[in-house]
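Worked example 3 (structure in, sequence out).
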């Protein structure tokens, strides 16, 4: 003979479960804030430190700002979609997508600066080549 135990909930032991979508959006919001503080902050500090070299590098600061703002806006829309979604997998997938978009938006100033540096180096390489050939006396074909 098997007995089943019944548990009674009292008012003191009542625990409320939050819906998965609320927890996922809270986690996603925390991740976006951490990206903004721990990634975008130092990146913008680095960009500000090299601002005097802006005349040497062709970095369009307005386009960088637009990309960062649009990236965080897209991440916020992903979090809104995660809140509206009813399936757990879709909710968490949208939270991860929001985090990845915000991370790319935070790193975009570094990518834009690196691209400008590469273009500047490509302009300098022929000059260095001509200098080396003039100093060594060897003519290139």
């Amino acid at each position: 003979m098997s007995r089943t135990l019944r548990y009674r909930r009292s008012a003191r032991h009542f625990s409320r479960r939050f819906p998965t979508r609320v927890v996922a959006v809270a986690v996603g919001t925390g991740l976006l804030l951490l990206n903004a503080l721990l990634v975008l902050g130092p990146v913008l500090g680095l960009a500000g430190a090299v601002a005097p070299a802006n005349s040497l590098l062709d970095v369009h600061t307005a386009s960088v700002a637009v990309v960062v703002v649009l990236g965080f806006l897209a991440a916020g829309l992903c979090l809104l979609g995660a809140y509206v979604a009813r399936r757990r997998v879709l909710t968490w997938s949208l939270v991860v997508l929001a985090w990845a978009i915000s991370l790319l938006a935070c790193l975009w100033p570094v990518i834009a600066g690196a691209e400008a540096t590469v273009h500047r180096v490509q302009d300098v390489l022929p000059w260095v080549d001509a200098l080396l050939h003039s100093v060594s006396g060897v003519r290139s074909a």
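Notes: The chain has three helices and no strands. The CA atoms of residues 82 and 94 lie 5 Å apart.
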